[in-house]
Amino acid sequence: xxxxxxxxxxxxxxxxxxxxxxxxxxxxxxxxxxxxxxxxxxxxxxxxxxxxxxxxxxxxxxxxxxxxxxxxxxxxxxxxxxxxxxxxxxxxxxxxxxxxxxxxxxxxxxxxxxxxxxxxxxxxxxxxxxxxxxxxxxxxxxxxxxxxxxxxxxxxxxxxxxxxxxxxxxxxxxxxxxxxxxxxxxxxxxxxxxxxxxxxxxxxxxxxxxxxxxxxxxxxxxxxxxxxxxxxxxxxxxxxxxxxxxxxxxxxxxx
Length: 255
Description:
The protein is α+β, with helices and mostly antiparallel strands. The protein is about 40% helix and about 15% strand.
Protein backbone atom coordinates (compact mmCIF):
# COMPACT_ATOMS: atom_id res chain seq x y z
CA UNK A 1 0.00 0.00 0.00
CA UNK A 2 1.21 3.49 -0.87
CA UNK A 3 -0.38 5.80 1.71
CA UNK A 4 0.18 8.93 -0.36
CA UNK A 5 -1.74 7.58 -3.35
CA UNK A 6 -4.52 6.35 -1.08
CA UNK A 7 -4.86 9.78 0.52
CA UNK A 8 -4.86 11.52 -2.85
CA UNK A 9 -8.40 10.15 -3.20
CA UNK A 10 -9.44 12.55 -0.42
CA UNK A 11 -8.68 16.25 -1.06
CA UNK A 12 -8.97 16.81 2.69
CA UNK A 13 -8.25 14.09 5.24
CA UNK A 14 -7.94 13.69 9.00
CA UNK A 15 -6.18 11.26 11.29
CA UNK A 16 -9.21 8.97 11.42
CA UNK A 17 -9.01 8.60 7.63
CA UNK A 18 -5.36 7.58 7.92
CA UNK A 19 -6.01 5.22 10.79
CA UNK A 20 -8.23 3.11 8.52
CA UNK A 21 -5.00 1.79 7.02
CA UNK A 22 -3.25 1.15 10.36
CA UNK A 23 -5.82 0.51 13.07
CA UNK A 24 -3.34 2.13 15.42
CA UNK A 25 -3.57 5.86 15.99
CA UNK A 26 0.08 6.24 16.95
CA UNK A 27 1.16 4.55 13.72
CA UNK A 28 -1.21 6.76 11.78
CA UNK A 29 0.28 9.88 13.35
CA UNK A 30 3.80 8.71 12.55
CA UNK A 31 2.82 8.04 8.94
CA UNK A 32 1.41 11.53 8.49
CA UNK A 33 4.50 13.07 10.06
CA UNK A 34 6.63 11.19 7.51
CA UNK A 35 4.54 12.47 4.63
CA UNK A 36 4.85 16.01 5.92
CA UNK A 37 8.59 15.66 6.39
CA UNK A 38 8.87 14.45 2.80
CA UNK A 39 6.91 17.51 1.67
CA UNK A 40 4.05 15.54 0.14
CA UNK A 41 1.42 16.39 2.76
CA UNK A 42 0.57 19.58 4.64
CA UNK A 43 -1.29 20.41 7.82
CA UNK A 44 -4.21 22.77 7.24
CA UNK A 45 -5.18 23.04 10.91
CA UNK A 46 -5.59 20.63 13.83
CA UNK A 47 -6.54 17.19 12.50
CA UNK A 48 -7.01 18.48 8.99
CA UNK A 49 -4.54 17.74 6.20
CA UNK A 50 -4.13 17.65 2.45
CA UNK A 51 -1.65 16.10 0.07
CA UNK A 52 0.79 18.16 -1.97
CA UNK A 53 0.62 17.63 -5.72
CA UNK A 54 3.76 16.18 -7.25
CA UNK A 55 3.02 18.10 -10.45
CA UNK A 56 2.35 21.58 -9.08
CA UNK A 57 3.88 21.49 -5.56
CA UNK A 58 0.58 23.05 -4.42
CA UNK A 59 -2.03 21.67 -2.03
CA UNK A 60 -4.40 19.20 -3.67
CA UNK A 61 -7.40 20.66 -1.83
CA UNK A 62 -8.77 23.95 -3.12
CA UNK A 63 -10.25 26.62 -0.87
CA UNK A 64 -13.82 25.46 -1.47
CA UNK A 65 -13.01 21.89 -0.45
CA UNK A 66 -11.14 23.04 2.65
CA UNK A 67 -14.00 25.30 3.72
CA UNK A 68 -16.43 22.40 3.38
CA UNK A 69 -14.50 20.15 5.76
CA UNK A 70 -13.71 22.44 8.69
CA UNK A 71 -16.69 21.28 10.77
CA UNK A 72 -19.45 18.72 10.11
CA UNK A 73 -21.82 21.57 9.21
CA UNK A 74 -19.47 23.96 7.41
CA UNK A 75 -20.18 25.19 3.90
CA UNK A 76 -18.98 27.82 1.45
CA UNK A 77 -21.14 30.93 1.74
CA UNK A 78 -21.57 34.66 1.05
CA UNK A 79 -19.25 36.11 -1.56
CA UNK A 80 -17.14 32.93 -1.58
CA UNK A 81 -20.23 31.08 -2.79
CA UNK A 82 -20.58 33.76 -5.48
CA UNK A 83 -17.01 32.97 -6.52
CA UNK A 84 -17.84 29.26 -6.67
CA UNK A 85 -20.76 29.94 -9.00
CA UNK A 86 -18.68 32.22 -11.21
CA UNK A 87 -20.79 35.29 -10.43
CA UNK A 88 -17.65 37.27 -9.74
CA UNK A 89 -14.29 36.73 -11.40
CA UNK A 90 -12.41 38.58 -8.69
CA UNK A 91 -10.41 36.35 -6.34
CA UNK A 92 -10.72 37.19 -2.66
CA UNK A 93 -8.35 35.90 -0.03
CA UNK A 94 -10.98 35.81 2.72
CA UNK A 95 -12.98 32.58 2.47
CA UNK A 96 -16.34 32.81 4.22
CA UNK A 97 -17.57 29.63 5.86
CA UNK A 98 -21.00 29.27 7.42
CA UNK A 99 -21.22 26.67 10.17
CA UNK A 100 -23.51 25.75 13.03
CA UNK A 101 -20.36 24.87 14.99
CA UNK A 102 -17.90 27.67 15.69
CA UNK A 103 -14.21 27.58 14.82
CA UNK A 104 -11.36 30.04 15.08
CA UNK A 105 -10.43 31.85 11.90
CA UNK A 106 -7.21 30.50 10.42
CA UNK A 107 -4.93 30.99 7.43
CA UNK A 108 -3.63 28.34 5.06
CA UNK A 109 -1.85 28.72 1.72
CA UNK A 110 -2.57 32.44 1.56
CA UNK A 111 -6.31 32.23 2.30
CA UNK A 112 -7.99 33.18 5.57
CA UNK A 113 -11.00 31.06 6.52
CA UNK A 114 -13.58 33.17 8.32
CA UNK A 115 -16.33 31.72 10.50
CA UNK A 116 -19.92 32.91 10.05
CA UNK A 117 -22.58 31.53 12.38
CA UNK A 118 -25.31 29.58 10.60
CA UNK A 119 -28.61 28.98 12.33
CA UNK A 120 -30.21 26.76 9.71
CA UNK A 121 -29.12 24.05 7.30
CA UNK A 122 -31.49 24.81 4.43
CA UNK A 123 -30.17 25.78 1.03
CA UNK A 124 -26.90 23.86 1.27
CA UNK A 125 -25.91 21.72 -1.69
CA UNK A 126 -23.14 19.22 -2.37
CA UNK A 127 -22.44 19.34 -6.11
CA UNK A 128 -21.44 16.03 -7.70
CA UNK A 129 -17.81 15.56 -8.70
CA UNK A 130 -16.76 18.55 -6.61
CA UNK A 131 -14.47 16.68 -4.25
CA UNK A 132 -16.77 17.09 -1.27
CA UNK A 133 -17.70 20.77 -1.61
CA UNK A 134 -20.70 21.95 0.40
CA UNK A 135 -22.00 25.34 -0.70
CA UNK A 136 -25.10 27.45 -0.17
CA UNK A 137 -27.22 27.53 -3.29
CA UNK A 138 -27.31 30.74 -5.30
CA UNK A 139 -30.55 31.99 -3.76
CA UNK A 140 -29.33 31.59 -0.20
CA UNK A 141 -25.99 33.14 -1.17
CA UNK A 142 -27.88 36.20 -2.42
CA UNK A 143 -29.95 36.48 0.76
CA UNK A 144 -26.90 35.95 3.00
CA UNK A 145 -24.80 38.48 1.09
CA UNK A 146 -27.47 41.18 1.35
CA UNK A 147 -28.23 40.35 4.99
CA UNK A 148 -24.58 40.64 6.02
CA UNK A 149 -23.30 43.18 3.51
CA UNK A 150 -22.20 45.63 6.21
CA UNK A 151 -20.17 42.90 7.92
CA UNK A 152 -18.77 41.03 4.95
CA UNK A 153 -19.25 42.04 1.33
CA UNK A 154 -19.94 45.76 1.23
CA UNK A 155 -22.57 47.50 -0.86
CA UNK A 156 -20.44 47.90 -4.00
CA UNK A 157 -19.62 44.22 -4.23
CA UNK A 158 -23.23 43.19 -3.58
CA UNK A 159 -24.51 45.52 -6.31
CA UNK A 160 -21.93 44.22 -8.79
CA UNK A 161 -22.87 40.63 -8.01
CA UNK A 162 -26.58 41.30 -8.44
CA UNK A 163 -25.90 42.73 -11.90
CA UNK A 164 -24.39 39.39 -12.92
CA UNK A 165 -27.13 37.08 -11.60
CA UNK A 166 -29.65 35.62 -14.03
CA UNK A 167 -32.76 33.49 -13.49
CA UNK A 168 -33.14 32.48 -9.88
CA UNK A 169 -35.81 30.54 -8.03
CA UNK A 170 -38.19 32.98 -6.39
CA UNK A 171 -39.66 30.37 -4.03
CA UNK A 172 -36.23 29.77 -2.54
CA UNK A 173 -35.67 33.47 -1.91
CA UNK A 174 -39.01 33.69 -0.12
CA UNK A 175 -38.23 30.63 1.98
CA UNK A 176 -34.89 32.00 3.20
CA UNK A 177 -36.40 35.40 3.89
CA UNK A 178 -39.06 33.71 6.01
CA UNK A 179 -36.41 31.77 7.92
CA UNK A 180 -34.48 34.93 8.79
CA UNK A 181 -37.67 36.85 9.61
CA UNK A 182 -35.91 40.23 9.41
CA UNK A 183 -37.87 43.32 8.33
CA UNK A 184 -34.75 45.24 7.29
CA UNK A 185 -33.69 42.31 5.11
CA UNK A 186 -37.00 42.41 3.22
CA UNK A 187 -36.43 46.13 2.73
CA UNK A 188 -32.91 45.69 1.36
CA UNK A 189 -33.87 42.75 -0.85
CA UNK A 190 -36.72 44.70 -2.40
CA UNK A 191 -34.58 47.72 -3.16
CA UNK A 192 -31.52 45.89 -4.47
CA UNK A 193 -33.33 43.31 -6.60
CA UNK A 194 -36.08 45.51 -8.08
CA UNK A 195 -33.97 46.91 -10.89
CA UNK A 196 -32.89 43.37 -11.83
CA UNK A 197 -36.35 41.77 -11.67
CA UNK A 198 -36.49 40.94 -15.39
CA UNK A 199 -33.08 39.30 -15.65
CA UNK A 200 -33.67 37.36 -12.42
CA UNK A 201 -37.18 36.35 -13.39
CA UNK A 202 -38.81 37.76 -10.26
CA UNK A 203 -42.53 38.48 -10.17
CA UNK A 204 -44.32 41.57 -8.91
CA UNK A 205 -45.78 39.45 -6.12
CA UNK A 206 -42.27 38.87 -4.73
CA UNK A 207 -41.77 42.60 -4.30
CA UNK A 208 -45.26 43.05 -2.89
CA UNK A 209 -44.38 40.47 -0.26
CA UNK A 210 -41.18 42.36 0.55
CA UNK A 211 -43.14 45.60 0.95
CA UNK A 212 -45.70 43.91 3.16
CA UNK A 213 -43.06 42.39 5.43
CA UNK A 214 -40.62 45.29 5.68
CA UNK A 215 -42.69 47.33 8.11
CA UNK A 216 -42.89 51.11 8.23
CA UNK A 217 -39.43 52.04 9.54
CA UNK A 218 -37.15 54.33 7.52
CA UNK A 219 -33.56 53.17 7.53
CA UNK A 220 -30.14 53.78 6.01
CA UNK A 221 -29.21 51.11 3.48
CA UNK A 222 -25.69 50.82 4.88
CA UNK A 223 -24.37 51.58 8.35
CA UNK A 224 -21.39 53.73 7.34
CA UNK A 225 -22.95 56.21 4.90
CA UNK A 226 -23.33 59.95 5.51
CA UNK A 227 -26.51 61.40 4.08
CA UNK A 228 -27.77 60.16 0.73
CA UNK A 229 -31.01 59.99 -1.21
CA UNK A 230 -34.37 58.82 0.10
CA UNK A 231 -36.18 56.10 -1.82
CA UNK A 232 -39.82 56.44 -0.85
CA UNK A 233 -40.85 53.06 -2.27
CA UNK A 234 -38.54 51.11 0.02
CA UNK A 235 -38.23 53.74 2.75
CA UNK A 236 -34.44 53.66 2.54
CA UNK A 237 -31.76 56.32 2.50
CA UNK A 238 -29.20 55.08 0.01
CA UNK A 239 -25.79 56.40 -1.07
CA UNK A 240 -26.10 59.17 -3.68
CA UNK A 241 -24.13 57.37 -6.38
CA UNK A 242 -26.21 54.21 -5.98
CA UNK A 243 -29.54 56.02 -6.31
CA UNK A 244 -28.29 58.06 -9.27
CA UNK A 245 -27.15 54.92 -11.05
CA UNK A 246 -30.55 53.38 -10.40
CA UNK A 247 -32.84 56.10 -11.73
CA UNK A 248 -30.84 59.15 -12.69
CA UNK A 249 -32.54 61.25 -10.04
CA UNK A 250 -31.82 62.55 -6.58
CA UNK A 251 -34.12 63.13 -3.65
CA UNK A 252 -33.06 64.78 -0.42
CA UNK A 253 -32.85 62.46 2.54
CA UNK A 254 -35.12 63.45 5.40
CA UNK A 255 -35.77 60.85 8.07
